[in-house]
Amino acid sequence: MKKAFTLIELLVVIAIIAVLMAILMPALRRAKEQAMNVQCRSNLRNYGLALRMYLDDNELIFPVSLEWLYADGGNGCRWHDASKNLDTHPELGGSLWPYLANKDIHVCPTFLRVAKAMSCRLTVHDGSIPVEPQYGYTMNSYLHGDAWYRVPQEFHGQIKKTANESSVKNPSRVFSFGEENTWSIAGISGVGINDNNLRSTPNGNTDCFATFHGASGNLNNGVSNAVFVDGHVEKVTPYPRPNTYILSWPAGKAPLKW
Ligand SMILES: [Zn+2]
Ligand SMILES: [Zn+2]
């Protein structure tokens, strides 16, 4: 006579499977996050190459950080507005877009997940626009000197006006493109990603690197990826507090005042 499984045997098997799942799931999650991190770093490497080509074609003058992605600036909800997608509306594209078009590199897979979960934290956010991340990387506003014009006069002495690549004396310590947080971090950032540039100021509320990679539970305890002016990609964080600013600023030193 063929012996069937007893209920007890079945329950034991199910319990063993449950234990195995509990052991394997964190490892699988980690592997998935690692794969997404690799994709993000590869995206940024492509941004670095695009910038290299742009600089070589434009006498080493950086693109204006407010107009590298959208020709008329990249304000408000455009980063997640599918109706402003540049693949379907290339006429809206900014100065760097021709070097980036036709490349599937504009959204970090980790950012895609976080941005949808966090929604858009802009005070001016138009709720009728669904959060569909289109572009997730922002440009260092200190390149081309865009930030220089916008930070208080008292800091102009310690911040260089940087239009030309040759004025960046430490290209391996100044980032060109990075990931910006979509939310506020108490004591550091007042607003999340609201345009396509990252301007970390030496005082008050500031833009800062995102911290969602490898974050467990608290999104503020992870790290970020950035590509530097020399083209290498590196793991960065906004901490200690002036770090985003130090990596934005061609002098590469801590600000005088924090
Ligand atoms: Zn929005
Ligand atoms: Zn990323």
Write up what this structure looks like:
By secondary structure, the chain is of the alpha+beta class. The chain has one domain (30-248). The chain is built from 4 helices and 5 strands, in the order αααβββββα. Strands 3-1-2-4-5 form a 5-stranded mixed sheet. A hairpin with a 4-residue loop joins strand 4 (224-228) and strand 5 (233-236). The protein is elongated. The mean pLDDT is 88. The structure holds zinc ion (2 copies). Residues 40, 108, 110-111, 179, 213, 225 line the site of one zinc ion (ZN).
- Tell me how many strands there are: 5
- Unreliable sequence segments: none
The tally of structural domains comes to 1
Q: How are helices and strands ordered from N to C?
A: HHHEEEEEH
Structural class: alpha+beta
| Terminus-to-terminus distance | 82 Å
- The radius of gyration computed from the alpha-carbon positions, rounded to a whole number of angstroms, is 22 Å
Q: Give the overall silhouette.
A: elongated
Q: The biggest beta sheet, please? A: 5 strands, mixed
Q: How many helix segments?
A: 4
Strand order of the largest sheet: 3-1-2-4-5
Helix content: 25-40%
Kindly report the average pLDDT value.
Answer: 88
Q: Which percent band covers the strand fraction?
A: 5-15%
Could you say which small molecules are bound to this protein? zinc ion
